[in-house]
């Protein structure tokens, strides 16, 4: 039982460290974007599966400006 809890604690700490890195230490962290889009690819997958990803991209550019970070390692720009 103790081994299971140790493994669970390590996984939680690892995921938390990944989120902290992506929000504050990643090279693209200074660019704006939706919070879930900056820490996880689930955000993009949600909009892709619902079929209105393009509408969401337009809305995000209106909200965050010409340059936005979304998802994780992408930087999107518009003219």
**Average pLDDT metric:** 86
* Proportion of beta-strand residues: 5-15%
Radius of gyration: 16 Å
What is the percent of helical residues? 55-70%
**Spans where pLDDT lies below 50 across 5 or more residues:** none
Q: Can you tell me about this structure?
A:
- The protein is mostly helical.
- It is built from four helices and two strands; from the N terminus they run ααααββ.
- It has one domain.
- The termini are far apart.
- 9% of the residues are buried.
Helices and strands, with pairings:
Blueprint: H1 2-25, H2 35-39, H3 42-49, H4 53-64, E1 67-69, E2 75-77
Antiparallel strand pairs: 1-2
Structure keywords:
79 residues
Give a quick summary of the entry:
This protein has 79 residues and is mainly alpha-helical. The protein has one domain (2-77). Helices cover 62% and strands 8% of the residues.
């Amino acid at each position: 039982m103790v081994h299971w809890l140790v493994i669970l604690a390590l996984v939680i700490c690892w995921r938390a460290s990944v989120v902290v890195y992506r929000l504050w230490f990643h090279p693209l962290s200074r660019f704006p974007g939706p919070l879930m889009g900056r820490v996880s690819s689930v955000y993009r997958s949600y909009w892709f599966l619902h079929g209105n990803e393009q509408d969401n991209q337009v809305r995000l550019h209106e909200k965050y400006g010409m340059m936005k970070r979304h998802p994780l390692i992408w930087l999107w720009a518009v003219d």
